[in-house]
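Q&A FORM
Asked by: J.P.
Topic: structure of LacI family transcriptional regulator

PROVIDED:
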Amino acid sequence: MTIYDIAKEAGVSASSVSRVINNKTGVNPEVRKKVQKLLKKYHYTPDAAARGLVSQSSRIIGILIADIRNIHHTDGAYYIERKLAALNYCCVILNTGDDDESRAQAISILEQRRVEGAVLIGSSFQTESVAQAIKRHLNNVPIVMINAFLDAPNIYGVLSDELHGVEACVNLLAEKGRKSLAFVRDCHTPSCELKVEGFRRGIRLLGQTEPWIYDSHGTTAADGKRATLEVLKDHPDVDGIIYSVDLIATGGIRALYDLGIAIPDQVSVIGVDNSIYGEICIPTLTSLDNKTFDSSIAACRILIDCLENRTTTRQMILPSAIVVRESTP
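REPLIED BY: S.T.
REPLY: Here is the structure written out as tokens.
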């Protein structure tokens, strides 16, 4: 059923039907009522692609995530999609993977879909190859990055202050009498390196000369368990461990449990993300809240400001906060 079919049955012009569909004025109330009844009867849905060709507006927003298994990032994508859907935007969510070629290909796909804007979630997108791909394919649309930033006229950033947040985690453990601390990281992204720097700053103030930093070589609980066993082997006197994400921290908790090491009496544990994993593990996990919800909503607001030609913030830094649970004294 096309607009012309509706017009023919209603006995009016196609332009009158179009005005009713788009809620424009200048239509007789009786004609409007008759057309609306036919639209409902035939379950008429406007062709978004055709309307886009006329208005030069696709109403499509791209959302890129490196790994859709990362609950922290998919939660952010959910908040963004819901907010934009309420404004009649359609979101295309792509799982890019972590290699430069795949990320560039995803950005190219967004160009093909004629997106009006894009949100890139995660600091893994903070690379020169992504900057070049954006310049080549999406140079004329607003791009908002969450927990990342690239210096380009059409790119905006919403970041969480994880550096000072992790430093605050070290201070919290120090206040609880912990003196021998280790840090386990899951990757080497810009975000994770800021967490490591926060750890380094914190332990310098504690007087711990050597930073005990370990790689989990993965993002699963099993990876966290394996790295924790390595920490304990090298430093049996460790009394506090900070993990770069909650999920690997749950693996660390399991390792300590299996060895009969009491949490938090003997070893305190802190994660980062304040995810559901921290709420359901035993003991519950103290975690650095890097404000997934707030970052997502802020990214939406910046993108909407750009789409509506309003002046907005190029770069925003949100403070993080520690959520204390059972894994710290």
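FOLLOW-UP: The radius of gyration is 25 Å.
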